Amino acid sequence: MGSVPAATPSVREIWRAQRADGPAAVLAIGTANPAHCVPQDEFPDFYFRATNSDHLTALKGKFKRVFQKLGVEKRYLHHTEELLRAHPEFLDDEAASLDARLDIVATAVPELAAEASKKAISEWGRPAADITHLVVTTNSGAHIPGVDFRLIPLLGLRPSVRRTMLYLNGCFAGSAALRLAKDLAENNRGARVLVVCAELTLMLFNGPKEGSFERLIHQGLFGDGAGAVVVGADPLSPVEHALFEMVSAAQTVIPDSGDAITMHITKGGFGGNISTRDVPVFIGDNVERCLHDSLEPLGIGAKWNDLFWAVHPGSSAILDRIDTVLQLEPEKLAASRRVLSDYGNMFGVTIIFVLDELRRRLREQEGAGGAPEWGVVMTFGPGLTVETMVLHATGHMHASP
Ligand SMILES: CC(C)(COP(=O)(O)OP(=O)(O)OC[C@H]1O[C@@H](n2cnc3c(N)ncnc32)[C@H](O)[C@@H]1OP(=O)(O)O)[C@@H](O)C(=O)NCCC(=O)NCCSC(=O)CC(=O)O
């Protein structure tokens, strides 16, 4: 008599076994910047000298006035005066400079991305080969194979790592990648997702031009950096620790705001528009509705000042608007303001720096016995798009090395 075959599991049983038991969580964070640091008060001199524009004294005066209002004290930039001298075509948006810019970012973006990733993997505590999924996002490039592919040898990832490359998501790119990572981690038992965002503003670099206000914002606000996060569900004790549990994630579009921020590739790098007067107003008018839409279905009825906050610091005017609308206590957006001040707006990378800064601040508050348990991530970008993620702090807020 033959043995009785084991019953084949049902599709539902297979589906259930493939899924994680608990929520996705942030397990580690790493950040990196280029070495070239430019204090904001020295930037107008650097910029007008490097672009042979010192004769435009009135325009330089306007740059200085507006730069002081952005909330930035210093930034890190890949491009130096030496690099700009070697590429005079980068000073003129009518010149065909796209190929030269793409050549530079093709190497520099993966290298910066790898630096941040190595720090995240080292803090995580497991080998790089245990990463099962890779989600990479950048606005700084347009290559196939892209940064995701280059990271496999740079980090020693498995060739079978499942890659997703997100190009041109503007400043909400970091949140979009984290939202995707949450779904991947919860829907693939044992998955460990490496999220990587990297940006170089070289794609936006141009000389000053009368009447081009957005150029002034492009040059004065944005900075270069990379951030990496390891995301996974059901942490393997004692090696892994959840920093933030990722409770829910949402994305929405603000009605009639489609022209407020636009970006497109041109022969001279990136073109586009930022309606600097409208963006803070659109965000201020919609922030409460987005928050209610995220928190109410979860049954979280906390007051705004009972939460911790990780908000994309688009500029200090945007943070001021959010402060006013939500009537936040001054320290609530302190992590966002600190990152804006020390690094500038690094597009989608910025929110990873804010999370890193926030966990340091929460650790200090835990020590003092009063850290909030629940919090919100909010980022904004072209669309205008608002990304919201609800987080739960776990009490493991150890800082990165
Ligand atoms: C640009 C600002 C710093 C200006 O600050 P204030 O409004 O307080 O300044 P202000 O009104 O005194 O103006 C200072 C000087 O700038 C001039 N000015 C201001 N706005 C202008 C505009 N839109 N066009 C032309 N000139 C303008 C004023 O005339 C004045 O000139 P004068 O001194 O000669 O009188 C601020 O509005 C701001 O931070 N806006 C939001 C920026 C933004 O959109 N960030 C999002 C980045 S994108 C992002 O994060 C998402 C993404 O990219 O995806």
TrEMBL record:
<feature type="domain" description="Chalcone/stilbene synthase N-terminal">
    <location>
        <begin position="13"/>
        <end position="235"/>
    </location>
</feature>
<dbReference type="GO" id="GO:0010208">
    <property type="term" value="P:pollen wall assembly"/>
</dbReference>
<dbReference type="InterPro" id="IPR001099">
    <property type="entry name" value="Chalcone/stilbene_synt_N"/>
</dbReference>
<dbReference type="Pfam" id="PF02797">
    <property type="entry name" value="Chal_sti_synt_C"/>
</dbReference>
<dbReference type="InterPro" id="IPR016039">
    <property type="entry name" value="Thiolase-like"/>
</dbReference>
<keyword id="KW-0808">Transferase</keyword>
<feature type="active site" description="Acyl-thioester intermediate">
    <location>
        <position position="171"/>
    </location>
</feature>
<comment type="similarity">
    <text>Belongs to the thiolase-like superfamily. Chalcone/stilbene synthases family.</text>
</comment>
<dbReference type="Pfam" id="PF00195">
    <property type="entry name" value="Chal_sti_synt_N"/>
</dbReference>
<feature type="domain" description="Chalcone/stilbene synthase C-terminal">
    <location>
        <begin position="245"/>
        <end position="393"/>
    </location>
</feature>
<dbReference type="GO" id="GO:0016747">
    <property type="term" value="F:acyltransferase activity, transferring groups other than amino-acyl groups"/>
</dbReference>
<dbReference type="InterPro" id="IPR011141">
    <property type="entry name" value="Polyketide_synthase_type-III"/>
</dbReference>
<dbReference type="InterPro" id="IPR012328">
    <property type="entry name" value="Chalcone/stilbene_synt_C"/>
</dbReference>
<protein>
    <recommendedName>
        <fullName>Chalcone synthase</fullName>
    </recommendedName>
</protein>
<keyword id="KW-0012">Acyltransferase</keyword>
